[in-house]
Amino acid sequence: MAHELSLQERETPQVMDHQHDVLEQRTAVLERSLSRASSQWLTLQQQVADSGEQIAQQNTVIEQLRGQLAALEQQTLLQRAEVESVELVDLFVETQPANAKVEVLNIKPRYTQGLSLPEGQYLLRISAPGYMTLNRWVKLQHLNNRYCVNLLGDASPLESPTPGEHQSAIFEAPCIW
Fold it and tell me: Where's the PEGA domain (predicted)?
């Protein structure tokens, strides 16, 4: 048995050395894992900090856009109020001859008797076959919205008069023929 004990005694330091080596290897693995985890933690902290800065910058941009939107909404409200406060005036043009064509040259809609327009300056063209064409600016206002036009006959149906040669009359008053 003494021989067996000495064998066990000899194996014990070897077993212990082996266990020590295994523990050192495990410790080294754990230290590397801890180092990687620590590095990853620092990276995540930096990413969170960067994200916080990006969020702050985005919030600043959002606030600027909100301010611009509020200004545009205010401007839109003011423009709507201006448009709604514009009073429309009905335009009436009576002509001699009665079948004369009336055009308002500086707007898109075609003229019809009583056309509603905002107050302002309008270029009228009144024409009829066999008569001189009349081009005249009129100032359309609430109490100044009826015009009488008496076209003069052409001297020659083949000649087209220039605007300066128009001798037709336009009156801003009730028509009395």
Answer: 90-142
Q: For the chain, what is the radius of gyration of the CA atoms?
A: 49
The pairing of strands 120-127 and 134-140 is antiparallel
Helix/strand/coil for 159: coil
Domain positions in the chain: 1-85, 88-171
What is the residue-level pLDDT of the chain in tens, covering all 177 positions?
555 555 555 567 777 888 888 889 999 988 998 889 888 998 988 998 888 889 989 999 999 998 898 888 888 877 877 767 778 899 999 999 999 999 999 999 899 999 999 999 999 999 999 999 999 999 999 888 999 999 988 765 445 545 444 445 555 555 654
Q: Provide CATH code, domain 88-171.
A: 2.60.40
